[in-house]
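Could you join me in thinking about how sequence relates to backbone shape in a protein? To get us started, please write out a protein record for me. Would you write everything just below, so we can both look at the same thing?
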Amino acid sequence: MPLFILKNNKAQVVAFDIVMATTLFIIIFSFFIVEINENIFETINGNNLREIKIRAKLLADILFESGGLPEDWQNKENNIEEIGIAKYPLVISEEKLNKFLDMDYNRIKEIMDIQRYEFYFRLGGKTKGLRPNENSVVVREVRIVEYDKNIYEGEFILWAEY
């Protein structure tokens, strides 16, 4: 009887070694798969995720915190360098907001130099641009702003399909 238990223990040890080796292999293999997916995700059709994040932050800052360049861009059709909709930082100008909302979507993208991306803007019930779809990389920038003597969440989304 003791001999049978001894043989059984050896079989259990061998089975345990196989299970541990297989588990370790699966963990290491999963780690490599996750790393590869993250690297692929960061380089989406040549668009670097970091670049999208930087652009979205910069554009939201300009849009919500500056009056644009030139300062009276809303009265001009040409030579617009930057679109800003603020009277003062985080205080929205009705005139500039309305001009922005009336502008052609592709013209805005051209001025903002984001032809490779899409954007979506929301302030209160007013929106401009294209909503991101489920197959896109989305960077959302939010600013708390004053508009029409009320406090709103101003949202600027820059996105790209992958």
